[in-house]
Amino acid sequence: MDGLMRLAIVVLGVIVLATVLATLTGWAGSTSATVGGRFEAPSVVAPLGTDNLGRSLLPRIFEGIATTLVVSLIAVVCSAILSTAMGLLAGYYGGGASEVVMRVVDVLYAFPALVLAILVSALIGPGRPAAIISIIAITIPLMTRVVRIATRAVAERDFVVSARISGVRTPVIFARRLLPNIAGTVAVQASYALSVAILVEGGLSFLGFGVQVPEASLGLLIQQGMLYMTLAPQLLIVPGVILVVSILCINIIGDGLRDRFEPRETRSLT
């Protein structure tokens, strides 16, 4: 683990830990209480200043981080489970099963990410469910492709072939032979999917198709801050910086996981 990855883990860990503590203990203050006038400068009562309603920005930031992370994590976990199942079936059985899975994936992959997210939101209405389903639809195609390739490579190895010839049941082969050997690939793809999920949630909320008022998310806070950029630039800058830093840290961690589970010597041959 290099120094850059350690730094990314520390920074992301601080953001997550502070958010969890703020959510559980309320140390940052109330997200709805008015603590001063509109657009006040940072002070002891409001360390990051106040918003257009006189509320402290700090607890709103933590609420936004919590919402974005929860929505993104739920979506990525669901996407990882579905992608792993579909990739395993397509990679292990091949033939018709692979064709069906890959055609479904190709249809989803054909849509531009933001267009697909807006389409989902338009069909089911804006809110958290729309953001979660949009993220799943966007991240499944690439994850499924990668899991399928990894599964095919493992399925052709001797220990899997011998288990199949010996009459070992397919669920047992999946659980004991395939999954442990593709877990690293799934972890790497899930880390990248998480950064995509945060970006998609932020984009949807910024456009008004994601999390809705009175809730807060990083994208929604950026949207609201943009309206008052000249009066209180911190309303835009703070959530924007946190969004960028979080995505950057996750991508750095993903690169570290990729180097750990997929050495360059192996990747250069593919």
UniProtKB/TrEMBL annotation:
Annotated localization: Cell membrane
Residue ranges annotated for the ABC transmembrane type-1 domain, each copy included: 65-254
TM region positions: 65-92, 104-124, 130-147, 186-211, 231-254
One Pfam family named in its UniProt record: BPD_transp_1
UniProt keyword list: Cell membrane, Membrane, Transmembrane, Transmembrane helix, Transport
Gene3D superfamilies: MetI-like
Membrane topology (UniProt): Multi-pass membrane protein
Name under which the protein is recorded: ABC transporter permease
Taxonomic source organism: Microbacterium salsuginis
